[in-house]
């Protein structure tokens, strides 16, 4: 296995000097704990295999293998070297407390280095070791081990990073404390001046950093850099294949992913109320019937609809019908690069295609192909089959030449069936017709849009440290705000499971805003656009309806002659022509029922419900065959729905029990079957708390078989009725 892991020892000062801060500001210890949590979160959410340990110095107790009663006192290995997890994060959140004991930061570095060396000894995969010291250097220290720690760091290949003091490694130390940011990173008038002990500690640490070529960051520098969550780091794996130009020309190549759409890890299986419980998915299959009968997975076969027929398709059938292809990267032809449009690019990734590094002949051959394509501005259209189990894909190889390397870039292309042709009308710029003159932009408007585009150009938007114009929002330096917010919520839920989700982090909110330099330059252009592109509110014309015309005529009359419509007739023309509903009629029974129960003068639900019940029975009885069944069923649906809404399920349930016997007596079993199919039976407790009917009782009520009544109680068939009527005529 390639060595790509990192062993990190975080060394934190919890002594008294780390717990002092002006009123209203965070102490250096609190700021340091925030930085450690950010380090752990970055490692955890990126699924890093790096291992981290935590060493505290300034603790009341001593717990390290080097302590002998005189040396390395008050230094504790709080967390041995290991992969980070939520337990580590919670330990940093809850278990780190300040103390009143000072300890030597040099002793702590020696203990941490010794732990790193011993913990990684015999383990494979570690490419480097790192010490991260977080302290304000306010405690006492000894200089007798300086040479030892310097040689130990160099010999073990360990890097040293310091977060806390602002040490100038490039020039003379600045003694003006008023101009220096303090340990918390805030340069303000409330920051306490450095003590002589801190100045001495900074001088000693500066010497160590210079000897081991270490780096030092203030909290104001480190916290913004650590506040971004990192994506999961994946070691690139080559896809080895032969690029087949012709049957006689084949070049061994390797393909590496250049860029790929990142999919966030699923967190469905990382939470359980019982931490020892084993989380597993359970999937069952049920029929679409009243009982929802469960079906075993072995008895299920996939089916595809062909018209009205379902054609079964077993796994063996799919395997036999599946298209079989062999792994390949085969050239289908060459074309001008201009024929491959940007909107033809497909897929969620692109690849670098390089020659096999162990084959010198392949390197020379592929280099000749790349340069020939570059000089002639051509591209290769290829057929790609990743493996025998995957479908063939169409793609192209484009030459890519840089000063340090050259390669081919593979991009997937669409098949003919994948292309969608959309036709859009052009802007009225060229056709100078009478209809277009109204919408044709003026030269001033076009110039204003061009100026806005130029001002929003990000390629030369910001200045770097040297004062030169450079690109803003570089893709390599931009983090996806969606993932940042997701990880922020996950770590908050892990640490505070019962608290609501936090507000959006200011860091994430700021990333959604354009650069200040660009916004400032666009203000003048935006004002110009407001002046050139006038926006007027268009008043919607009223439709010439009878009611509008009546109102207009009323407004034109003298006020003394106007009729007080609101007092006498209740409002507009619709209210004048509409009669008051007093009972459930036969023309619009549902509307009448709704109007009755919504009247404000009294609660008429029981009375309206009785009328609706009578109307349903009348419609079923008067129906010639199933002529009025649909209308009766609509009435029944409205009655059931409003009974639930008005918390009156008993009226409906009592009616349905009687109505069932009524249908059997009248020989209307076909309407009862419609009720069962439409699930308009009794109202259960799950639908209304006022109901006394259980779910089982409701199912039994529907499942009961309707016994056939005697033949003499059944009405004559529709055909017989017709013949009797003809005889009477």
UniProtKB/TrEMBL annotation:
InterPro entries: DNA_bd_Ku70/Ku80 (IPR006164), Ku80 (IPR024193), Ku_C (IPR005160), Ku_C_sf (IPR036494), Ku_N (IPR005161), Ku_PK_bind (IPR014893), SPOC-like_C_dom_sf (IPR016194), VWF_A (IPR002035). One of its GO terms (biological process) is DNA recombination. The keyword DNA damage applies. It is an enzyme of class 3 (hydrolase). Its EC number is 3.6.4.12. Keywords: ATP-binding, Chromosome, DNA damage, DNA recombination, DNA repair, DNA-binding, Helicase, Hydrolase, Nucleotide-binding, Nucleus, Ubl conjugation. SMART domains: Ku78. The keyword Transmembrane helix does not apply. It catalyses: ATP + H2O = ADP + phosphate + H(+). Residues 7-164 form the VWFA domain. It comes from the Eukaryota. Residues 164-201, 543-566, 710-729 are annotated as: Disordered. Its main location: nucleus. Single-stranded DNA-dependent ATP-dependent helicase. Belongs to the ku80 family. This is ATP-dependent DNA helicase II subunit 2.
């Amino acid at each position: 296995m390639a060595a790509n892991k990192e062993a990190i020892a975080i060394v934190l000062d919890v002594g008294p000097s780390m717990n002092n801060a002006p009123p209203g500001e965070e102490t250096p210890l609190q700021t340091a704990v925030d930085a450690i949590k950010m380090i752990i979160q970055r490692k955890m959410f990126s699924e890093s295999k790096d291992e981290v340990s935590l060493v505290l110095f300034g603790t009341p107790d001593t717990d390290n293998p080097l302590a002998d009663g005189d040396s390395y006192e008050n230094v504790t290995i709080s967390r041995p070297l290991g992969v980070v997890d939520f337990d580590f994060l919670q330990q940093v959140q809850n278990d780190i407390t300040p103390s009143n004991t000072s300890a030597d930061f040099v002793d702590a570095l020696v203990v941490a280095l010794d732990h790193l060396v011993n913990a990684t000894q015999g383990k494979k995969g570690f490419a480097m070791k790192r010490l991260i010291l977080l302290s304000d250097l306010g405690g006492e220290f000894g200089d007798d081990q300086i040479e030892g720690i310097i040689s130990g760091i160099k010999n073990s290949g360990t890097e040293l990073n310091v977060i806390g003091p602002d040490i100038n490694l490039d020039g003379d130390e600045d003694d003006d404390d008023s101009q220096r940011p303090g340990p918390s990173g805030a340069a303000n008038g409330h920051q306490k001046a450095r003590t002589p002990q801190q100045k001495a500690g900074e001088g000693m640490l500066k010497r160590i950093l210079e000897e081991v070529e270490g780096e030092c960051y203030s909290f104001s520098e480190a916290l913004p850099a650590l506040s971004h969550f990192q994506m999961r780091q994946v070691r690139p794996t080559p896809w080895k294949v032969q690029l087949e130009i012709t049957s006689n020309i084949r070049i061994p190549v390797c393909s590496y992913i250049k860029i790929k759409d990142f999919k966030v890890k699923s967190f469905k299986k990382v939470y359980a109320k019982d931490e020892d419980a084993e989380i597993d998915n359970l999937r069952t299959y049920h029929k679409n019937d009243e009982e929802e009968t469960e079906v075993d997975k072995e008895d299920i076969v996939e089916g595809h609809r062909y018209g009205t027929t379902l054609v079964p398709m077993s796994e063996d059938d799919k395997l036999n019908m599946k298209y079989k292809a062999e792994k390949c990267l085969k050239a289908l032809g060459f074309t001008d690069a201009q024929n491959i449009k940007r909107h033809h690019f497909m897929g969620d990734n692109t690849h670098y295609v390089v020659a096999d590094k162990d084959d010198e002949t392949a390197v020379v051959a592929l280099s000749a192909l790349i340069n020939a394509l570059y000089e002639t501005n051509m591209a290769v259209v290829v057929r790609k089959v990743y493996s025998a189990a995957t479908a063939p894909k169409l793609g192209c190889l484009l030459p890519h030449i840089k000063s340090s390397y050259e390669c081919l870039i593979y991009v997937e292309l669409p098949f003919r069936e994948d292309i969608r042709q959309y036709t859009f009308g052009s802007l009225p710029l060229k056709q100078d017709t009478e209809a277009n003159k109204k919408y044709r932009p003026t030269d001033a408007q076009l110039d204003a849009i061009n100026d806005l585009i130029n001002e929003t150009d990000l390629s030369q938007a910001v200045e770097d440290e040297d004062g030169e114009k450079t690109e803003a929002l570089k893709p390599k330096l931009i983090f996806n705000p969606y993932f940042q917010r997701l990880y922020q919520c996950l770590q908050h839920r892990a640490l505070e499971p019962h608290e609501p989700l936090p507000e959006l982090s200011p860091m994430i909110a700021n990333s959604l805003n354009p650069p200040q330099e660009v916004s400032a330059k666009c203000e003048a252009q935006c004002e110009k656009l407001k002046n050139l592109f006038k926006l007027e509110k268009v008043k919607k014309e009223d439709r010439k309806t009878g009611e509008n015309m009546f109102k207009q005529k009323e407004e034109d009359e003298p006020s003394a002659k106007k009729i007080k419509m609101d007092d006498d007739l209740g409002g507009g023309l619709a209210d004048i022509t509409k009669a008051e509903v007093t009972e459930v009629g036969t023309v619009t029974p549902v509307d009448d029922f709704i109007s009755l129960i919504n009247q404000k003068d009294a609660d008429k639900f029981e009375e309206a419900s009785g009328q609706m019940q009578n109307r349903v029975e009348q419609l079923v009885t008067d129906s010639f065959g199933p002529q009025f069944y649909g209308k009766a069923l609509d009435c029944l649906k409205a009655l059931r729905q409003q009974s639930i809404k008005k918390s009156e399920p008993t009226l409906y349930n009592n009616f349905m029990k009687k109505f069932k016997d009524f249908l059997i007596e009248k020989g209307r079993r076909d309407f009862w079957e419609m009720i069962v199919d439409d699930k308009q039976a009794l109202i259960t407790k799950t639908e209304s708390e006022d109901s006394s009917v259980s779910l089982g009782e409701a199912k039994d009520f529907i499942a009961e078989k309707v016994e056939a009544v005697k033949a003499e109680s059944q009405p004559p068939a529709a055909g017989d009725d017709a013949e009797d009527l003809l005889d009477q005529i």
